[in-house]
Design a protein that fits this description.
It is found in: Membrane. The protein contains ten helices and eight strands. By secondary structure, it is of the alpha+beta class. A hairpin with a 2-residue loop joins strand 2 and strand 3. The longest helix has 43 residues, at 199-241.
Length: 310
């Protein structure tokens, strides 16, 4: 029963489609064509200026005679002949056309809402098919690009949209070409121009990026501190073995101070004097130790002499 219903539905809907096909000119139409030709011959050569037009190299002409599309390919480039009273012609530009797609909202795979705009480059490939299938070419291409981009970008995350624009444009071109070839249009290129993020999403991304930068700065600073401490430890080991190197380092520090800050007055003290000032009895807790010459240890005298006052 369902098979019969589908078969009848198919027959009913196929009849008007067959009736819309052009069956050629009728008898009255052929009569009008002959009258027009006779009129052109009678008024020759004046009528020839109204029957011949020029088509540029980048243009093609489609001729409709009494509303019927003339068979054959489009006319041009060069001269073409038409009947002024019966024929109407339409020129189609075959050069590359640029269409700017306005901002429209999309939803990404990770559920972010964003706005994108794009630019589409296309050309007319089949003029006869184009005029017989589309009324507004730019609107049809614009809406098709918007719906195709929404469908493709719904399967990609925000990071992929920002980083993989080239592959997205290639996928969109293939998807558009599969549809526009039926209309006689060839899509040459499509590119995403700009991506507009909401203010809240921009703030969250900025905070995340700032946190990552701060973490990297801390890691680099920690690595620098570690390397500096290792260098200081090695330098301390080297200086502890050679006392003369400490004196040279001290003199080098004084020279650096006098060079960097000429207004500063530096009074160098000898190391021997510093050693005397930094004796164990005068050192306070937390002060830096200075190298002091080793003194011989005095022998302990367990027996103390009595004081003469006693």
């Amino acid at each position: 029963f369902l098979h019969r219903i589908g078969k009848n539905y198919f027959k009913v809907h196929m009849v008007p489609i067959k009736s819309t096909k052009s069956s050629g000119l009728g008898a009255c139409e052929w009569l009008l064509v002959l009258i027009s030709l006779l009129f052109i011959i009678m008024t020759f050569p004046f009528s020839i200026w109204f029957c011949i037009k020029v088509v540029q190299e980048y243009e093609r002409v489609i001729i409709f005679r009494l509303g019927h599309l003339l068979p054959g390919r489009a006319k041009g480039p060069g001269l073409f002949f038409f009947l002024p009273c019966l024929d109407t012609y339409h020129k189609v530009d075959l050069r590359l056309q640029t269409l700017e797609i306005p901002f429209h909202e999309i939803v990404t795979k990770d559920m972010f809402i964003m706005e994108i705009d794009a630019v589409c480059y296309y050309r007319m490939e089949n003029a006869s098919l184009l005029l017989s299938s589309l009324a507004h070419v730019s609107k049809a291409v614009q809406f098709l690009v918007q719906t195709t981009m929404k469908r493709l970008l719904a399967h990609r995350s925000l990071t992929e949209i920002l980083l993989e624009r080239k592959s997205i444009a290639q996928d969109a071109k293939v998807a558009l070409d599969s549809v526009t070839c039926i209309w006689g249009i060839k899509v040459e290129r499509i590119e995403i121009k700009d991506v507009r993020l909401p203010a809240g999403l921009q703030h969250s991304l900025a905070v995340e990026a700032e946190a990552q930068r701060q973490a990297k700065v801390r890691m680099i600073a920690a690595e620098g501190e570690k390397a500096a401490s290792e260098s200081l430890r090695m330098a301390a080991e080297i200086l502890s073995g050679t006392p003369a190197a400490v004196q040279l380092r001290y003199l080098h520090t004084l020279q650096s101070l006098s060079t960097e800050k000429p207004s500063t007055v530096v009074l160098p003290l000898p190391f021997d004097l510093l050693n005397c000032l930094s004796s164990p009895s005068n050192r306070t807790q937390g002060s830096l130790p200075f190298p002091s010459p080793s003194k011989p240890a005095e022998p302990l005298n367990p027996k103390k002499k009595d004081s003469p006052m006693l």
